[in-house]
Write a structure and sequence with these properties.
The protein has 19 helices and 2 strands. By secondary structure, the chain is mainly α.
Amino acid sequence: MKPRATVSTATDPDAGGAAAPSGGDESAGRDGKGESPGGGGDGRASRSRTIGGRRARTAKTTPTSTGAQAGGITWRLRLRRDRTLVLMTLPAIALLLIFNYIPLLGNIVAFQDYDVYDLGITGSPFVGFDNFTRIFEDYRFWQVLINTLVIFLTQLILFFPIPIVIALLLNTIMSARVRAWVQAVVYLPHFFSWVLVVTVFQQMFGGAGLVAQWLREHGHEGFDLMTSPGFFKFLVTAQSVWKDAGWGVIVFLAALAAVNTDLYEAAAVDGAGRWRRMWHVTLPALRPVIALLLVLRVGSALNLDFEQILLQRDQVGSGASEILDTYIWWTGIKTGDFGYAAAAGIFKGLFSVAMVLGANKVAHMLGEQGVYSKK
């Protein structure tokens, strides 16, 4: 007994209720005789058209994106979402405004014959650019500027590479305990004040210091490095190295921790030794950080440590130890000429901005990002 072929129909909403075959004798479909009542042809083709019609209708009626997805999240929704973080940052923003931005309004005294005692900012007469003219015509100002740049270049050449070298040496130590101990010892002087640092160097390299006394006890003539004008730039560089080298080591160690260890393993497999791995893997990984810190360091060329220089100014003499900050303090603030001091401060700020932009341009030419990326 042959099995009876059955044909089931399904109503297509797009065809106005017309029935399309959803099953039946396969031979009829292959012979072209299984036509739908609507005269469509093959049943499977009709099903595919029906399904395609449903999919097309669904694609038309379903929205592809909501308003928030198309235009991005609005600032009101973002503010509502991050309101806790915004409230946490409000005290920091208030301190920044009070102590960093509102005092910028006081730079108006650079264009006034400012009298701090009687007239104040509102009563002092405006003199235009007379204070800036006095600065540029003061030969002593240019001598101090050159002396500041000489001390900065000495520190840049002798001090800047030392944290990198220490970080590379610490990175080669396998014992984590020894590495942490050495890092703590190197970083500890960063918490010392400049008074303590200068005192330690005075006890070591002064005329009555330990080194001079040891030389005299062994028949040699002692020396006093703390009062030598020619050695002063190297003295302040050595003090900066002892005090702040550990701070830079932390930054470079953090950059070294982000280097993929697979690169070292691949270099070792290729036959690269320790020096080759350091040259081709470690130093390229440190290049972005070195470029960034170098740009920031160049931007602060005129921002030497005021307290460090002021503590040793009288011992060495103003000819060798005078920098721009101490000169502004001595000739401007100490004598009450606040207009002159404010004009010198504005010149210092503009000079620093120009140095940052120039150093960042050089970093872009060398293929590094610097402070900001190249557009």
